[in-house]
């Protein structure tokens, strides 16, 4: 069986907070629900996270007007506390997240395989907006 080579998209943000806080806010459901959406008319009303290799996670992303929602989830393949997370989404695409000290903060880099439905630039912008929400939430809470 031939496997299609997927386009990999990389986004990043420099979060001005200690690694312990960055890790906590990136992984705890009560924080995920505060930042996991790409626009102000969306929200994340539910989240669960079993942060360990083989553990599953799921976050519900929904339009605030109730018109649409979906679950973003997958299974972890690698978890190195304060350093790296890797997982496979429910559609089979792979994601790697790294956390590294830089400039007095933590540089968070996400590399993910693009899906085939939407343009690459649209996916990059959506994921970057969510990562920017994470940065803002972590730096201001």
TrEMBL record:
<dbReference type="InterPro" id="IPR023393">
    <property type="entry name" value="START-like_dom_sf"/>
</dbReference>
<dbReference type="Pfam" id="PF08327">
    <property type="entry name" value="AHSA1"/>
</dbReference>
<dbReference type="InterPro" id="IPR013538">
    <property type="entry name" value="ASHA1/2-like_C"/>
</dbReference>
<comment type="similarity">
    <text>Belongs to the AHA1 family.</text>
</comment>
<feature type="domain" description="Activator of Hsp90 ATPase homologue 1/2-like C-terminal">
    <location>
        <begin position="17"/>
        <end position="137"/>
    </location>
</feature>
<protein>
    <submittedName>
        <fullName>Polyketide cyclase</fullName>
    </submittedName>
</protein>
């Amino acid at each position: 069986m031939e496997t299609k080579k997927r386009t990999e998209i990389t986004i990043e943000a420099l979060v001005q907070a200690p690694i312990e806080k960055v890790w906590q806010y990136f992984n705890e459901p009560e924080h995920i629900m505060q930042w996991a959406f790409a626009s102000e008319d969306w929200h994340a009303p539910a989240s669960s996270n079993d942060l360990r290799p083989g553990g599953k996670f799921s976050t519900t992303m929904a339009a605030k007007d109730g018109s649409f929602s979906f679950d973003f989830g997958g299974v972890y393949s690698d978890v190195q506390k304060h350093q790296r997370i890797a997982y496979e989404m429910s559609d089979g695409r792979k994601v790697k997240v790294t956390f590294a000290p830089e400039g007095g903060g933590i540089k968070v880099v996400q590399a993910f395989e693009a899906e085939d439905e939407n343009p690459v630039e649209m996916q990059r912008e959506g994921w970057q907006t969510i990562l920017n929400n994470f940065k803002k939430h972590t730096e201001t809470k």
